[in-house]
Design a protein that fits this description.
The chain is an all-alpha fold and 151 residues long. The chain has two domains: 80 residues, Cytochrome C biogenesis protein (Helicase, Ruva Protein, domain 3, Orthogonal Bundle); 31 residues. It is built from six helices and no strands. It starts with a helix and ends with a helix. It comes from Roseivivax marinus. One of its GO terms (molecular function) is metal ion binding.
């Protein structure tokens, strides 16, 4: 019984499967490996968390076929990626470039960390140097307090 449970767990465990269908694959192993490498770096526009190599969405299939078509036409890897980026925008890249205004997105995390550390340091320094106000009661206040306590 225990062996059957272990076998069931192993057979039903989630394993990453690639969505590339046999009819999509190229006959040339060199071109196919280039196509797989390119498609691993392109985002599925439907799933948005998977590459087109892992996605089963129809649009991902179309993009995989488009990549293979461009490679068989003789395009270089860069030309294929540029073609798809020109058509769908830079969002299709799983690793966006740092060119243009994207540098701000890449730098936003470290900049915010430095701002938070600076703000924290200024706050802590201000707390440490703040004068203490333990002057006690003035003679008039002490007299008034004695009056109130007598009542």
């Amino acid at each position: 019984m225990r062996a059957a449970m272990i076998a069931f767990a192993v057979l039903t465990a989630p394993v990453p499967l690639l969505a590339v269908q046999p009819d999509e694959m190229l006959d040339d192993p060199g071109l196919e490996s280039r196509a797989r490498e390119i498609s691993e770096g392109l985002r599925c526009l439907v799933c948005q968390n998977e590459s087109i190599d892992e996605s089963n969405a129809p649009l991902a299939r179309d993009l995989r076929i488009l990549v293979r078509d461009r490679l068989t036409e003789g395009d270089s890897d860069e030309e294929v990626v540029d073609f798809i980026v020109d058509r769908y925008g830079e969002f299709v890249l799983l690793q966006p470039t740092t060119a243009g205004w994207n540098w701000l997105l890449w730098a936003a995390g470290p900049i915010m960390l430095l701002l938070a550390l600076g703000t924290g340091a200024v706050y802590l320094r201000g707390r440490a140097t703040a004068p203490e106000r333990d002057e006690g009661l003035s003679p008039e206040e002490q007299a008034r307090l004695r009056e109130l306590l007598r009542d």
